[in-house]
Design a protein that fits this description.
With about 325 residues, this protein is mainly alpha-helical. The chain has 2 domains: about 230 residues, Up-down Bundle (Rhopdopsin 7-helix transmembrane proteins); about 45 residues, no CATH class. The protein has 9 helices and 4 strands; from the N terminus they run H-H-H-H-E-E-H-H-H-H-H-E-E. A two-stranded antiparallel sheet has the order 1-2. A hairpin with a 2-residue loop joins strand 3 and strand 4. Helix 1 runs antiparallel to helix 2, helix 3 packs antiparallel against helix 4 and helix 5 runs antiparallel to helix 6. The longest helix has about 55 residues. The protein is rod-shaped, with a radius of gyration of 42 Å. The N and C termini lie far apart (about 130 Å). About 25% of the residues are buried.
Length: about 325
C-alpha cells in the first residue's frame, strides 16, 4: 500500500472474500436448479464485481501513470459488464425470466463502448493526472474524453430502466419490492456518484466499491423471504398428506377388523357344506354331466347328499355289514 491508495488491502481482501463466497454459492444453487436463472445472474454479477474491485485497486494503488492507466481502463470495462448483468438480474427477479434480445443489445453496445475505452480516447483519454477527492486523498486517474458525458447519460438511463422493472414487477410482494428497490437505489446512486466524479461534473469520493453490500443484502432478504414461504407451503402440504394417509390407514384397519370379526362369527363346517351342496346341484342340473361324474365328484370331496341336502360325510369307510 502506498501514499496514493484510498482502499486498504485488508478491506479489499474482505470484500473479495464476500463477493467470491456469494458467487460460488449462487453458482452451486444454479447448478442444482437449472430452471431458475436468478442465481446464475447473481453468480455472474458477483464475478464481475470482484473484477471491478481488483481493477479499481490497481488504479488506486498505482505509483506510476502507466499502471494507473491500465487499472482505470479495466475499471471502466468492468463497470460496463455490470450493466447487462444488472438488467438481467432485475428482469429475472421481477418476471422470473429475462429478455435475451434486450440483454444481447446491451451486450453489443457495451462491447462497442469497451473497445472505445480500451483503444481510443473518446471516453477516457490516455492522459493521466493526479487528482484529489473530497476528503483529500490523492490518486492517479485518466482525463475524461469528449464522449464521457454521453457515457454517463447511458449509465443513468439503464439504471432508471432497472428501477422501473422492479417498480412494476407483478410477481414481487410489496415488502420484497420495497427492500430491493431501496438496495438497488443505493447501488445506482453510488455508481452515478463515481461516474459523475470521474467525469469531473462533481467533486466527491469514490464509493461504488461498497455498493455491492447494498444489493447483496437486498437480494438475500428477498430470497430468504421466498424460500421461507416455500418451506411453509411444503410443511403444510406434508402435514395435509400425512393426515390423509393416517385417515386411510385407520379406514383400512377398521375394514380388516370388521372382516376378521365376520370371519370368526361363521361356522366353517356349515359354510363349506352349503357351498359344496350348491356346486353339486349345479352339476346335476347340467345336461352333459352324468350321475357317475356327480358321484365321483362327491366321493372325491367326501360329502354325501341325502334328500337334496348335503352334509359332510364322517369318513370314507364302507357301511357296516
Amino acid at each position: 500500500m502506498n501514499e496514493f491508495s484510498t482502499l486498504p488491502l485488508s478491506l479489499l481482501l474482505l470484500m473479495l472474500g464476500v463477493v467470491g463466497s456469494g458467487g460460488v454459492f449462487n453458482l452451486w444453487v444454479s447448478l442444482g436448479r437449472r430452471g431458475d436463472r436468478l442465481h446464475l445472474w447473481a453468480a455472474g454479477w458477483c464475478a464481475i464485481t470482484g473484477a471491478y474491485l481488483v481493477s479499481h485497486y490497481i488504479q488506486l494503488s498505482s505509483v506510476t501513470p502507466e499502471r494507473a492507466d491500465l487499472g482505470a481502463r479495466l475499471t471502466w470495462i468492468s463497470a460496463l459488464l455490470l450493466i447487462p448483468l444488472m438488467v438481467g438480474l432485475s428482469q429475472t427477479l421481477a418476471h422470473q425470466r429475462c429478455s435475451w434480445r434486450l440483454v444481447g443489445f446491451l451486450g453489443g453496445v457495451n462491447g462497442v463502448l469497451g473497445l472505445m475505452i480500451a483503444f481510443t480516447g473518446l471516453i477516457v483519454t490516455g492522459q493521466t493526472y493526479l487528482r484529489s477527492d473530497r476528503i483529500g486523498r490523492n490518486y492517479w486517474t485518466l482525463v475524461p474524453g469528449p464522449l464521457m458525458s454521453a457515457f454517463v447519460l447511458f449509465l443513468f438511463a439503464v439504471s432508471i430502466y432497472s428501477l422501473v422493472i422492479i417498480w412494476r414487477a407483478p410477481r414481487l410482494e410489496t415488502g420484497e419490492r420495497r427492500i430491493y428497490l431501496a438496495s438497488l437505489s443505493i447501488y445506482i446512486t453510488l455508481g452515478l456518484n463515481d461516474a459523475l466524479h470521474a467525469a469531473r461534473w462533481i467533486e466527491s469520493v469514490r464509493v461504488f466499491d461498497y455498493a455491492y453490500v447494498a444489493v447483496a443484502l437486498g437480494l438475500t432478504h428477498v430470497l430468504v423471504r421466498r424460500y421461507t414461504r416455500l418451506s411453509c407451503a411444503l410443511e403444510l402440504e406434508v402435514a395435509a398428506r400425512t393426515s390423509e394417509l393416517r385417515g386411510r390407514q385407520d379406514q383400512l384397519s377398521a375394514l380388516i377388523e370388521t372382516g376378521r370379526g365376520l370371519t370368526e362369527g361363521l361356522d366353517l363346517t356349515t359354510t363349506t357344506s352349503r357351498i359344496l351342496t350348491t356346486v353339486l346341484e349345479v352339476l346335476r342340473a347340467m345336461e352333459h354331466v352324468s350321475n357317475f361324474q356327480a358321484v365321483a365328484f362327491q366321493e372325491f370331496l367326501g360329502v354325501g347328499v341325502e334328500n337334496g341336502e348335503g352334509r359332510p360325510r364322517s369318513g370314507h369307510g364302507h357301511p357296516a355289514q
